[in-house]
# Entry
Amino acid sequence: MSQLQGAIAATRFGMGARPGEIEAASSDPRGWLKAQIKSDAALVPADGLMSVKQVFEARRDAYGGMPPPGAPGAPGAQNGQGVRTEAQQKIQQQVQRESREGLLKEIDARGKHAAATTTSFAERWTRFWSNHFTVAARNAQLIGLVGPFEREAIRPHVFGSFAELLGASTFHPAMLTYLDANRSIGPSTQAAKRRDAGLNENLAREILELHTMGVGSGYTQADIIEFAKALTGWTIGNPQVARLAGAGGDGNGRARALQQVGGLAQEMQQALGETVFMEPLHEPGARSVLGKKYGGAAKTQAAAILDDLVMNPATAHHVATKLVRHFAADEPPAAAVKKIETAWMKSGANLATLARAVVDLDEAWVEAPQKFKTPEELLVSVARASGSETAFGRDQRQVYQSLAQQPFSAPSPAGWPDDTASWSGSDAIKKRLEWANAVSRRMVRGSSPTEFLDKALGPIAGAKTRQAVARAESAEQGFTLALMSPEFQRR
# Structure
């Protein structure tokens, strides 16, 4: 029994068993998991990877002083600018190529870390939160930002407080860009009137709908609008923002206005790629959200609203339901959800406490596999048992794409789905079989199919699966049968 519990710890709570890991977890499965709940367990070495600030600086250097496309003052609209536009297009292509290369490095580093880490529960916990606070590489502007977002906003905070994690993700340049909050301007400000621009509600809506309270939890469209106004002013440092915030003057003359813009632009050049608060872009006045009034300094309005959302009972219920769905079953048992809600409210939404509460859910330790692996989980579990090169070959991204779950490319701000129906259609199963056949050709260079079952599943592998694998006509067919078995496709 204890060995079965050790296998569940490594494969359901973790990302899959490495050789010897089931045995290591079997003496104290829950203690083995709880030992991974520590602040540095989710961090990934950043060797060769760029910070979000470095990404913005590299783009600035590539353009060599020319504003990027879409920025104020960008060429192309006036006569006689054709040569410069062509040059800018070439630079843009270079930047996009470098961004794609950076994304490949991020995917490679992330996959190798998941395959090798000794704290795979911490890795699964991290990936849950990264999906909860989704930022996807949906366009060229975001490709270079998604990897830094996970490394900077998510991983350092997954065992801290939910308030810290919510704040770090909300105000990270990647999230501001993904949900267009960096271009949101208070509608009654001078900047909005000059630029014919205004409020963008995306970030406020997704925080309420996805990150905190959840759909149908009592907030209204008026709450979204008021929250969006509170978020105005938070943007990303660059000289163009300085011109937007400062130009047009304060009634003291053009010369003074230009001088003001120049000084602000210099500050923004130094803060390039950093989240900054620009009060001239913030909608003035007090805000009313969920029946509570938020006055005070403009810079603190959004943070005050976020703090109250953290301890809203609807937030506790929404996130608890998602956690139980991920670790226990597609249909979350109500009693388990209640336990996590209680831990949330009593601990002040401390994520380390929540992680321990999840480990202690009896509902998550039932013997039969409950969850259907997503493609990413499937690939990582093979990589942990047999090595990254075996699981991915030479191109991680291509393998992920073939199974329709490339990292950092969730289809919407809601993230990747977390239920069997979304991943088990006939076409998806066909693609998994094609992948299993390809992987099996590489796996024959290592251990036997039976040895693979022992180290990857242990006692989870049932008698029928073991018999089918043992009777396979070839080792390659045996590996395919093992990979496509119900026990390996589920966790």
